[in-house]
Amino acid sequence: MPLRPRSDAASPRRRSSGGKRSSGDMDLGTRALLLGVGSLVLSWVPLLNIIAFLAGLMAVAFGLLARWPTGWLTNEDTNPRRGLWGVVLGAIALVVFVVTAVRYSAL
Question: What is the pLDDT of residues 3-22, one digit of tens each?
């Protein structure tokens, strides 16, 4: 897989100052990781696990898109390692959702 040269000057979304980036500047790998962690935390709570299920699906989707080899979706460099962790945590959260949903419905 050929590496793309990183052109910070050509990208209008990059800031030259070292300040904080807004959430709109977050890459897909980081979004997948945050959604994966959040969905794993919320998947244990009885009524909030429905929201965690949706967040887990989004984490898996964003993580897979961040690991897509061609980069056709975004013009920015994504973080594939964070995308992989987002997929893993999102998948674990989906399994926890199914287990807790079955357990709570049996009560």
Answer: 555 555 554 554 444 444 55
Give CA separation, 66 vs 11, 30, 89, 94, 107, in Å. 18, 9, 15, 19, 39
- 19-43 pLDDT, tens digit each: 445 556 778 888 999 999 999 999 8
Boundaries of every domain in the chain: 25-106
Q: Longest C-alpha distance within the chain, in Å?
A: 59
Q: Angle of helix 80-106 relative to helix 28-42, nearest 10 degrees?
A: 20
Please give the Cα distance from 8 to 76 (Å, whole number).
10
**In angstroms, rounded to a whole number, what is the distance separating the alpha carbons of residues 19 and 72?**
28
User: Model pTM greater than 0.85?
Assistant: no
Say whether 21 sits in a helix, a strand or coil.
coil
Whether the CB-CB separation of 81 and 29 falls below 8 Å is answered with yes
